[in-house]
Amino acid sequence: MTGMALVADKKTVTCFKLAGLSDVYSVNDSRGAEKCIQALFEKKNLKFILVSERLLTQVKIIEKTGSDTFPLIVPIPDISNPKVPKTDRIVELIKRKTGIEVKF
């Protein structure tokens, strides 16, 4: 276990598998993503859950788990629909969850 998991579409999952990440989950819709993320929150040694931005905008479970420090949910762009990551949003999320301010 790397302490990191990925929930995304099939193409994105394939790319991360090729990069060496083994804890990856391919989902087709927001319902599948919600179930997968909820199951991942039960893993004690997981620190980061990477979720494709397209799925993350549709998932409601994030609000329910907002008080926990870890795992930290990090949005990533989809391979099939790439967007520029919103760095400010990620930095704010890290600061809120860990109390650590990240500066670039």
Tell me what you see in this structure.
It is a single chain. The protein is α/β, with parallel strands linked by helices. The protein has one domain (4-98): Rossmann fold (3-Layer(aba) Sandwich), CATH 3.40.50.10580. 38% of the residues lie in helices and 17% in strands. The chain has 5 helices and 4 strands, in the order E-H-E-H-E-H-H-E-H. The chain has helices at residues 10-18, 30-40, 53-56, 61-64, 87-98; strands at residues 4-8, 24-26, 48-52, 72-76. The protein has a 4-stranded parallel β-sheet, sandwiched between helices. It is globular. The model has no long low-confidence stretch (mean pLDDT 80).
State the gist of this model.
This protein has 104 residues and is an alpha/beta fold. The protein has helices at residues 10-18, 30-40, 53-56, 61-64, 87-98; strands at residues 4-8, 24-26, 48-52, 72-76.
Write the layout of secondary structure elements.
Layout lengths: L3 E5 L1 H9 L5 E3 L3 H11 L7 E5 H4 L4 H4 L7 E5 L10 H12 L6
Major sheet: order of its strands?
A: 2-1-3-4
Question: Strand fraction band?
Answer: 15-25%
Average of pLDDT: 80
Q: Can you tell me the CATH superfamily? A: ATPase, V1 complex, subunit F
Structure class: alpha/beta
And the CATH topology?
Answer: Rossmann fold
Largest β-sheet summary: 4 strands, parallel
Q: Output the CATH class name.
A: Alpha Beta
The tally of structural domains comes to: 1
Distance between the termini: 29 Å
Radius of gyration over alpha carbons?
A: 13 Å
Helix-strand pattern: EHEHEHHEH
Low-confidence stretches: none
Shape: globular
Number of strands: 4
* CATH hierarchy: architecture: 3-Layer(aba) Sandwich
Helix content: 25-40%
**Tally of helical segments:** 5
